[in-house]
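This section describes the prediction task in plain terms. A model, or a person checking by hand, is given the sequence of a single protein chain and must write out its three-dimensional structure as a string of tokens. No templates, partner chains or ligands are provided. The sample shown here is typical of the held-out split.
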Amino acid sequence: MSNLNDITFSEAPHFFNDVCKYVDDAAQFTQHDKGLLNQIKACNSVFHFKFPIRKGNSFEIIDAWRIEHSHHMSPTKGGIRYSEMVNEDEVMALAALMTYKCAIVNVPFGGAKGGIKINPKNYTIAELETITRRYTVELIKKNFIGPGIDVPAPDYGSGEREMSWIADTYQTMNSGSLDALACVTGKPLALHGIAGRKEATGKGVAFAVRECVSVSEDMAKIGLTTGLSGKKIIVQGLGNVGYHSAKFLIQLGATVVGLCEFDGAIYNDNGLDVEDVIKYRKETGSILGYTKAQKEFKDSSEGLEQACDILVPAALENQITEANVARIKAKIIAEGANGPTTPAAAAAFVKNGGIIIPDMYANAGGVTVSYFEWLKNLSHVAFGRMDRRYEETSNVNILNTLESSTGVKLTPEQRAIVGKGASELELVNSGLEDTMVRSYHEIRNIKNANPLIPSLRTAAFIGAIDKIAISYQNLGIWP
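The expected answer:
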């Protein structure tokens, strides 16, 4: 049996092939039929289409994709990326990662992904709305969207606004459909989204890092103490995922010493005030020139190579490669983005004693809370609405009984803490935290069960493959 560190990878990054290489390596530790493994790897449906939009006095042709990787569970699930760098290989890879991601965190979806090849900054809001609605119409015509078919979500370059346009377009073309709003997640609360969805991916990254550094045995091997207190962190990307990862890691006790953006990077060994950096960027358009930074780099990649304990790449894929991995000083890489570390770079980092918290687990907070939103839309009841007041009344009655029996009176603040019922946000955060905690230790247990398994990533793929295989077998496709 070969080890991941012995595999030779091509220098040019091919994202989907990279994902398939990870699956092949993990498959060596399973006993599944080769045909079944090929089915698990394959993209089931690839929809590439073009449509025109009017831009000024002329027309522009827009390239777009929706790819459903696996139908072992329905519906399929995955975000829609708005970027000039979108291509079919990338969308296939991201759809595949969604399949494995959902499996490892026990979310009952198949994987999918969408992409529109545009730079949103080059379009007016009206033009973006036209593009988004036309994209949705094309999906509807080909049966690539629906509450029980395929459920999109936000991704790089898209957000609540775009999901609102998708939901409205779907509702308009499916008049009378009771569950129409469940056709897409990541919607604003006013359109029956769910509390906590926007920050879910970043908060999930923070929970993943916290669980990793909580294991004393693993930290001793890499020369770190347990816990996030005092840990120095560099975050790449100050979008939704990067910002919230940094925010919640700081709340959990870590210190963010470096921030990397597309236009450069800043570093301060004593820590950076992320909120102040965000404010500065809004005022100036860049993080460069921030006066409280000790160092700044016009080449953003240099920021990844500064001294820290934990590196959180939360931007785009292929940021850590064979060319720069030897200069990475972090002992832990927590992959907030999808595929930020190439297979060869990942193998080298792990061989040198580092730990990689793999993307398919680390950034699964978004799809986890999207699952909660989907359930909310199907049930037509907000979480906490039915039972919150009942819980509060019951808790207050218990408090009153205990106080009268013991003669001890709690302060109003104590009564408020003990007596309250859970809000939707608190329930969502509880479900997210439980998912991330359970899944991390499930992955770690798989790795520790066999000393030949080289990394947490390989262990995560093993767990995902086993679950997907069981689903196919339950469908009667494989004996």
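For orientation: The mean pLDDT is 93.
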